[in-house]
Amino acid sequence: MSVVQKVAEWRRHIHQHPELSTKEFNTSKFVADKLEEFGLAVHRNVGGTGVVGILKNGTSKRSIGLRADMDALAIHEQNCFDYKSKTDGVMHACGHDGHTAMLLGAAYELANNPSFDGTVYFIFQPDEERGTGAKAMIADGLFTRWNIDAVYGMHNLPGVPAGKFATRAGALMASESAFKIVVKATGGHAAMPHTGTDPIVVGSQIVTALQTIVSRNLSAIDETAVISVTNFETNGTVNVIPSEVTISGDTRSYTDSTLRKVEKAIERVVAGQCLSAGVSYEYQFNNSYLSTINSLDETQYAVAAAEKVVGAPNVDGNCKRYTISEDFSFMLREVAGCYILIGNGEGECGGTALHNPHYDFNDDILPTGIDFWVALVNNQLRSDL
Q1: pLDDT tens, position by position, 199-211
Q2: Which of 3, 61, 197, 249 would bridge 229 by S-S if both were Cys, CB 3.0 to 4.6 A apart?
Q3: Does the structure show a pLDDT above 90 at 83?
Q4: Could you tell me the residue ranges of all domains in the chain?
């Protein structure tokens, strides 16, 4: 059986047995056992169910970290192939099964054909989907227990031709933060609104005013952001003006300074509207993901490795920015690194959107992903450097 066939089997095994965030017990064991079979030193239970495999070759003290995510989503799979999820309500709808399999394949190849000089850390991370896995591994000493000079991550991208790569230096993906605003009024009878205060009117004004933050408080050139109100709830009924309105939503931005500016601006808008209406409020702002910011040198290494594998015409080293988010961003705050996207295919062969019950990782890109990791390690840890 070829290496690619083995990796495809591993991928489909993981796909059949998906596990939710922080519950990746069997996936973690599967990964750790494979790494030990390959001869790597393995550390289990890093940041919960995380795994770190270590492969050394030569005498150099230089090192590189390669990261894959392992968790699945709470989605009921609607595919019909024979390796579909065996767990009702849980499936690999984001391709983490493929990411894990590709990194395992790279570990196998590098262990059997070591031509690099240094140390490779294979990082298998839990709980990417909720944004706490990277932070948990970091808190458990990922970058203090081990000397990792640079760290890299990769994610499949449906709708992009299979095997094409895209990345960029600087901000590649946005931060994600959630906000919650509770407007507290007196409410009253719908027939006598003058006897109380109406939080619906205030809340509606807040929703409209929030949009002026992007259009009037942020630079259209340097401070791109999105503020989306996604929920508006009251405790009223047909003939009762409510006493509370709860407004919640989501924000995205590409720099930490813009993130903090948005956080303060939302509360300023809320405070002003509530003060003018004589009502009170509560405000919460919680950051889930930071913006994913690639460092220049590491991006150049990643682009060079991708070009070696698929050719320069198939690599976009200055791609557009994406407003989606990724918790690999927290690792990039600790050490230099790069996050790169690999095309999952178009149409029926890989084009189904992520987080969709019909999504499936495209096995045709497994060898491309493996070859990328191997080329990256051999290039960045060359013996002549």
Answers
A1: 999 999 999 999 9
A2: 249
A3: yes
A4: 3-171+291-380, 175-289
Average pLDDT over residues 255-273: 97
The residues that bridge with 50 in the sheet, in sequence order, are 46
Rg (CA), the chain: 24
Judge whether 242 and 235 are in contact, CB under 8 Å.
yes
**CA gap 123, 40 in Å, rounded:** 12
**Tokens at residue 287, please?**
């950051």
User: How far apart (Å, rounded) are the C-alpha atoms in residues 191 and 209?
Assistant: 28
- Looking at the DSSP bridge assignments, the partners of residue 266 are none
Instruction: For 110-145, give one letter per residue: b (16+ CB within 10 A) or e.
Output: bbeebebbbbbbbbbbbbbbebbbbbbbbebebeee
Place of tokens 């230089």: 62
Q: What is the CATH code for 175-289? A: 3.30.70.360
Do 3-171+291-380 and 175-289 share a fold? no
Distances from the Cα of 325 to the Cα of 136, 167, 175, angstroms: 18, 14, 6
Active site residues: 71, 128
Give the CB-side neighbour count of residue 277, counting CA atoms within 13 A.
26
User: What 3 state SS string does the chain have?
Assistant: CCHHHHHHHHHHHHHHCCCCCCCCHHHHHHHHHHHHHCCCEEEEEECCCEEEEEEEECCCCCEEEEEEECCCECCCCCCCCCCCCCCCCCECCCCHHHHHHHHHHHHHHHHHCCCCCEEEEEEEECCCCCCCHHHHHHHCCCCCCCCCCEEEEEEEEECCCCCCEECCCEEEECEEEEEEEEEECCCEECCCHHHCCCHHHHHHHHHHHHHHHHHHHCCCCCCCEEEEEEEEEECCECCEECCEEEEEEEEEECCHHHHHHHHHHHHHHHHHHHHHHCCEEEEEEEEEECCEEECHHHHHHHHHHHHHHHCHHHEECCCCCECCCCCHHHHHCCCEEEEEEEEEECCCCCCCCCCCCCCCCCHHHHHHHHHHHHHHHHHHCCCCC
pLDDT of residue 163: 86
Model pTM above 0.90: yes
Q: Which CATH architecture has domain 3-171+291-380?
A: 3-Layer(aba) Sandwich (3.40)
Task: Point out which residues pair with 180 in neighbouring strands.
Answer: 248, 284
Q: Which residues lie closer than 8 Å to 308 by C-beta, 6 or more apart?
A: 375, 379
